[in-house]
Amino acid sequence: MNDAGTAAAGITLRPAAPADAMAIGAVFDAAVRAGWSYLGDLAAEPMFTPQDWDQLVADHLPPRVLLVAVGEPDGIVGYTAVHPEDGEMFLLFVHPAHAGRGVGRALLAAAHDTLRAAGCRETFLFVHEHNERALAVYTAAGYRPDGSDRISDFRGTRLRELRLVKQLYAGTHSRLPTRDSTSSDHQPSGTRPMFMNRNRKQADSAATTRSQARASNSRTLRGGVHHGNDRA
Ligand SMILES: CC(C)(COP(=O)(O)OP(=O)(O)OC[C@H]1O[C@@H](n2cnc3c(N)ncnc32)[C@H](O)[C@@H]1OP(=O)(O)O)[C@@H](O)C(=O)NCCC(=O)NCCS
Known about the structure:
- The protein is of the alpha+beta class and 232 residues long.
- It has five helices and nine strands, in the order ββααβββαβαβββα.
- The chain has one domain: Gcn5-related N-acetyltransferase (GNAT) (Aminopeptidase, 3-Layer(aba) Sandwich).
- 30% of the residues lie in helices and 28% in strands.
- A five-stranded antiparallel β-sheet has the order 1-2-3-4-5, with helices on both faces.
- A hairpin with a 3-residue loop joins strand 3 (65-71) and strand 4.
- Helix 1 crosses helix 2 (50-58).
- The two termini are 19 Å apart.
- Coenzyme A (COA) is lined by residues 31, 35, 92-94, 99-105, 127, 131, 133-134, 136-137, 140.
- Coenzyme A binds at residues 31, 35, 92-94, 99-105, 127, 131, 133-134, 136-137, 140.
């Protein structure tokens, strides 16, 4: 597992500790304010409580992984989380004051290393359809849309997220856990975005498992995906 190492210049990656919870929340709030303007007023105020951030860290004890990027003098400047049990690249946030320096790319590479070390051959994530910067970062890292999406209601705002997938090994053939290209998950109204909602996560895992069974029986990803590992 790549649980520590050098990222961008002056930045070190390490597993999160309980004492990091508030700093993780602060990075989230700043990144959302700067980057999620498509959410309007929702992005202007903190979305989650200190207890939510404590819970996030508690939810990412091994075998899950939550890595923080740390720099001086600012402390935590970004983080990523992965779920090896289903291969999800779950969180990626960088403080806007440190954006564009390669921290996100380094966190993403570490997330992929972690998933590989856990035996995952492919990974997936959900990203808001209008999150152009994140879409560019993920595309550069080798993710491609699998044609499915997830629709939900967050405090009265409709969210549509695209599901992206990536092969974690070069030359791996393209049998991916894709869903039927016409299908969507339409989620009922809730108070949290999907990445903080554990019940919903369980539902997604079940849906993905069902689609994996369908995919392995009948489909391959259109066009195939052949990418090198993240060092490229
Ligand atoms: C997405 C995010 C994590 C990227 O972090 P970052 O540290 O700024 O990214 P990096 O500096 O490592 O850049 C990664 C790549 O994206 C490119 N990139 C950087 N800024 C970009 C921009 N504004 N538009 C398009 N591409 C951009 C870089 O050129 C780099 O590509 P390269 O590796 O070919 O040079 C960060 O912007 C963020 O936290 N956004 C808000 C939270 C969010 O939306 N997270 C994703 C939720 S699904």
